[in-house]
Amino acid sequence: MSYNWNWDIFLSPTPSGESTYLGWLLDGLQWTLTLSLGAWIMALVLGIGLGVLRTVPNRLLAGSAAAYVEVFRNVPLLVQLFIWYFVLPELLPTTLGDALKQTDPLAQQFFAALLCLGCFTAARVCEQVRAGIASLPRGQRNAGLALGLTLPQTYRYVLLPMALRLILPPLTSEFLNVFKNSAVASTIGLIELSRQSQQLVDYTAQAYEAFIAVTVLYVLINVLVMFGMRLLERRTRVPGYIGSK
Amino acid sequence: MSMIQIENVSKWYGDFQVLTDCSTHVTEGEVVVVCGPSGSGKSTLIRCVNGLEAIQQGRIVVNGTALADPTTNLSKLRAHVGMVFQNFELFPHMSVTDNLTIAQIKVLGRSTAEALARGLAMLDRVGLKAQASKFPGALSGGQQQRVAIARALAMDPICMLFDEPTSALDPEMVNEVLDVMVELATEGMTMMCVTHEMGFARKVADRVIFMDHGRIVEDASKDDFFGTPRAERAQLFLSKILQH
Question: What is the CATH number of the domain that holds A123?
Fold first, then answer.
């Protein structure tokens, strides 16, 4: 195979001359990080709320949360993104839809991707929160209530702190997935990390270098997330409880 | 005065009837032991007293407040009805101190210092002052149950409900918990105890209620219950558990 390796390519200036190819990658990395972290925060807040609703003794609330999960978990992520980006503006009242289409295209792409990833991941977080709460002994809820805590207080002080600790390992997987799933944003034109690497190949034909570099960057993000979550697991460990050392 | 009034209470899980027309009462300062074979509905009955389980028929009144009354604030009522569970149900992610103070602070609105003082006093009372900073997971079952009792007492309850408090304990630890309960009883605490500890019943109970298949089949003074139980099922139960 005669492939002309050229690692210096990253330091070469881009055709427009205002950046290097490495600069492009870092630019993409920035979008990937902003999009993923934003979506993760949204998914945590929404997912914990929905997960709690799935376990409350009220059919309407539990049913609505279940319906949410079924919709967002069963429609392919890519289809959801297209709905947020292409279909939603058409469904809004004409003036609002038109106003939306007039805004900065980059903002449109970013917020469509953010809502899409956040809502999709929230459905998955919700299911884990529900499983975590369900795995606690039934008596814990009764003990909280018997002390006079209201149901919301029982969730806040008794059930959620333990349930969230129990689901930290699977939550780590979800956190990692958000970064990987964020690559779908490239399909609506957001130049995040994976799209930047393709662009780099288009311009330089140095496919191996580009994809190796982008792989390393994704791995780096995920290793950092894993260490962070491990640290959190260790910090929040409950002395003498199953699963702690 | 009647502290707990249970009137014609029936309860179903779906089609299955777990409680049938149960009526009894606990007067102030009285210690009532509820016993009976497993599945007889005694734990369900005691959980109905503070509204942890809903009833479909009948009426329960605690300290003059009807549970089913829509104006009743159940949380407020429960704050003053102490409950001790079979599996302790301490909050595992909180230290003993936090277990003792959380409800005092969040429910009764006590200051942290006030709650701490009250909590530690109760912990001292159950003989565990040295364990204040430990987590529940580091304590033995008997110790955990005593902390659970202290947690309930710290709320200054008007009565205490015990739901098989010694059933999950190693035999060696049963007495340390019973000792605390006996002391409470002799001090005049109103208590309703689901338990199989007949020694405890003999020592401090004023009345014994015997349940079978969701019905109260015997509701008698302690002496009558152990001396001349009227219900056949209660006689059989006693003959089986008092042999040894």
Answer: 1.10.3720.10
